[in-house]
Amino acid sequence: MDLSRANPQIKTPRAEFWAGVAATSPLLTGDLPFGMLYGALALTALAPLPALAMSSIVFAGSAQIVAAQLFASATPGVVIVLTTFVVNLRHLLYGASLAPHLKHLPGRWQWLLAYLLTDEAYAIAITRYERPDVTSQGAAGTNAHWYTLGAGLTLWLSWQISTAVGIMLIARLDIPPEWGLDFILPLTFIALIMPVLADKAAWLAALAAGVMALLLAALPLKLGLIAAALSGIFVGVMVERLLPARRTAARLGEVQPEAE
């Protein structure tokens, strides 16, 4: 059913799709060198075809870079699988956040959007679902999933192209390791998180996660990332719970009963 015909205020699937593409486009300038970095790293341990196949099948930038580094150091397969699993555990949090907005969709849509879910796609999609036109009538009453599809497909295509460029071009240029191209990864995440730091809870959650990530960076299997993420979630939830209670107490303190 085309919801836009039943309610003219609802955007058509095509309009939502291209809006998702447009919202994602500014991120592609950071995605290109990130993918090229993976392509260059992957060739230290993999042939070009398997390196490309990892991008199309796995489609997880940070996990692919970690896996490529582990392949290059001849790490046992079980350790590689476990490490990349731990690195990608944050996607469980993304899925739990988006699940209420996607539960009305048929299974083929849910599987497709789950495959296309990345850090950037989640950041773009969740802001769409939090807009007033969706929150007022629910995601089931809109075509917002087409917005998520547009964002996810744009990032997928960009990732395939950028990794192919890295595999075919960057590795042949023999870029010196002292150039330090791996700085692109943290810069990408900083660009994603800044727009969503809209209140005190978000800022404190990000600060807690950042501090814990630095303190626990030496833990094996990237466990420090998971501990940092859980710390940020805990701080954010606690601040969200404490702030309303403090506001209520402040209001009660301002309203003093009149003396009889």
Describe the protein.
- By secondary structure, the protein is mostly helical.
- The protein has helices at 3-6, 13-24, 28-42, 48-57, 61-72, 77-87, 90-102, 107-115, 119-129, 132-137, 144-173, 184-193, 200-215, 223-254.
- The longest helix has 32 residues, at 223-254.
Report how far apart the termini are.
Answer: 65 Å
* Nearest-integer average pLDDT: 80
Class by helix and strand content?
mainly alpha
Number of domains: 2
DSSP strand tally: 0
Count of DSSP-assigned helices: 14
Characterize the overall form. Answer: globular
Give Rg in angstroms.
Answer: 22 Å
Please estimate the helix content. Answer: over 70%
Taking pLDDT < 50 over at least 5 consecutive residues as the criterion, the unreliable ranges are none
Order of helices and strands: HHHHHHHHHHHHHH
Q: Approximately what portion of the residues adopt beta-strand conformation? A: under 5%
**Can you summarize the main beta sheet?**
none
